[in-house]
Amino acid sequence: MTETQDADQAREELKRFGVRLRDRRILAKLSRRTVAEWSSMSDCTIKFIESARTRPKLCLLYTSV
């Protein structure tokens, strides 16, 4: 696999993660602000993760479980 293919695959995974996060947040009837408070992130960061504009850090994902 080339470097470009790796980057494309990583971007697709990031998009899928954001969609899953948003869908589950909505299903749980939680606001971005509530999720942000529970995870010690800003609501803007949650929005950027959901829209695949930023990659969440592993340590944030692990401590938010």
Helix content percent band = over 70%
Q: Give me the count of strands.
A: 0
Subunit arrangement of the protein:
single chain
**Residue share in β-strands:** under 5%
- The averaged pLDDT comes out at 88
Continuous helix count: 4
Overall 3D form: elongated
Distance between the termini: 32 Å
Rg calc: 13 Å
Structural class: mainly alpha
SSE order, one letter for each helix or strand: HHHH
Runs in which pLDDT lies below 50 for 5 or more consecutive residues are none
Report the sheet with the most strands, covering strand number, pairing sense and barrel closure: none
What are the key terms here?
single chain, mainly alpha
Outline the secondary-structure elements.
Blueprint: H1 3-27, H2 32-39, H3 43-50, H4 58-63
Helix pairs in contact: 2-3
Give a verbal description of the structure.
With 65 residues, the chain is mostly helical. It contains 4 helices and no strands. The protein has helices spanning 3-27, 32-39, 43-50, 58-63. Helix 2 crosses helix 3. The longest helix is centred in the first third of the chain and has 25 residues, at 3-27. The mean pLDDT is 88.
At a glance:
With 65 residues, the chain is mainly alpha-helical. It is built from four helices and no strands.
